[in-house]
Amino acid sequence: MGRLRVLAWQTLSVAAIVLAWEVAVRWRVVDPLFVPAPSSIVRVLGVTGAEALPRLGDTLVKTLLGYALAILAGVPTGLVLGSRPTAHAIAMPYVVALYGVPKILVLPWIALVFGIGLSTAVLSAAVFAIFPVVVLVAAGTRDVDPALVTVAASMGASRGQIIRKVLLPAVLPSVLTAMRVALVFALLGTLIAEMLAGTRGMGFQMQRAALAFRAPELFAATAIVSVVSISVVLFLEHLNTRLGRWR
Asked: What pTM value is reported for the model?
């Protein structure tokens, strides 16, 4: 199936969903108080967007700071755990166990220690994002062909050279996958922190709209965040493809 044909089918499917949604609301199949019609969302999109842009910028700054912390700490940790069997055997069960703990349980403790503000949102984003990075990078490192490491070591390569010239190129797909997943988790952590312990940002705006039962504004704000998130993930996917050719 050609690319244009696939795109046409995707467009038609989205249009059909939106049309069915509009009809369901107009025929009162769903309550418009909770699920507004797409036409109502479009009408408030301009006003909501004008208010949302500064808040979105604030949210993205917190997200990127937490995301950077997660990548800077998670990638080296994953490489170490994946390349050292003893460290993997000792530490990985704790990492997996902490990965399974709902991260929202940590948020009240972060707010208790750091208060309400930038630090809480940034640390929440980092906590949400770091565990998938460590797990994916460690798994990718353990999947590297041991023969590559053996050959490099037999040719006199140091530990640092093995990591830079053998492990990193081989584990690059896992790192890029971890970066894509971590970005979504970091944004989620920031939004939750803003909803529960924030006074600004998109999470705060969405929470305020929800408590006031302003469903069209809530859906419009959600659409704006979703578009930005999808765009960044698609950019990382494009980067993955380009770097995959280099590898």
From this structure: 0.84
